[in-house]
């Protein structure tokens, strides 16, 4: 793949610089491996009337693999009987691989005493579309929805 030691060294420098720029450009400090991520319920026409989830978080890799941010659940089809939930969520994330593929999983949960929102997000990697499985206070039970990357 690399024709020389110089090519390999250049690739390592570019990789290191790229991750520092990513962290710095997303509110982190240079040298800290943290970045922002955002996921929202994918509206492919098959979720009409279903609740909608939006997750905005800061993903941290050091010293522990944790992510924290805001989870918002809206459910327009039930009308004024459902008040949107907006709560802080946090939890650990994991990177897993099998023989065929790799994926990232984030287990998130509201703080004790906050409006209830709990679930997990699974995607091939951060910044790729994935799937959320979650439950929330006043909801229909476990909801499984495709998630798209948002801004």
What amount of the residues lies in strands? over 45%
Tally of contiguous helical segments: 1
Parts with pLDDT < 50 across at least 5 consecutive residues? 1-31
In whole angstroms, how far apart are the ends?
A: 34 Å
Helices and strands, in order, run as HEEEEEEEE
Structural shape: globular
Q: What composes the largest sheet?
A: 8 strands, antiparallel, barrel
Structural class from helices and strands?
A: mainly beta
Task: Describe the structure in your own words.
- Helix content is 14%, strand content 46%.
- The longest helix is centred in the N-terminal third of the chain and has 21 residues, at 5-25.
- It starts with a helix and ends with a strand.
- It has an eight-stranded antiparallel beta barrel with strand order 1-2-3-4-5-6-7-8.
- The chain is mainly β and 151 residues long.
- The model is unreliable at 1-31 (pLDDT under 50).
- Strand 5 and strand 6 form a beta hairpin.
- It has one helix at residues 5-25; strands at 34-41, 52-60, 66-74, 85-97, 102-110, 117-123, 130-136, 143-149.
- The protein contains one helix and eight strands, in the order H-E-E-E-E-E-E-E-E.
């Amino acid at each position: 793949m690399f024709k020389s030691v110089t090519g390999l060294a250049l690739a390592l420098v570019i990789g290191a610089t790229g991750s520092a720029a990513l962290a710095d450009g997303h509110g982190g400090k240079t040298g800290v491996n943290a970045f922002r991520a955002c996921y929202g319920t994918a509206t492919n026409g098959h979720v009409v009337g279903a609740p909608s989830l939006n997750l905005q978080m800061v993903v941290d890799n050091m010293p522990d693999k944790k992510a924290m941010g805001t989870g918002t659940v809206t459910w327009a089809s039930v009308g004024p009987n459902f008040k949107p939930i907006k709560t802080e969520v946090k939890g650990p994330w994991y990177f897993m691989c099998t023989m065929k593929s790799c994926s990232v999983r984030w287990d998130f949960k509201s703080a004790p005493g906050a409006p209830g929102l709990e679930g997990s997000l699974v995607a091939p990697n951060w910044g790729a579309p994935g799937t959320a499985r979650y439950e929330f206070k006043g909801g229909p039970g476990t909801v499984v929805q495709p998630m798209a990357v948002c801004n």
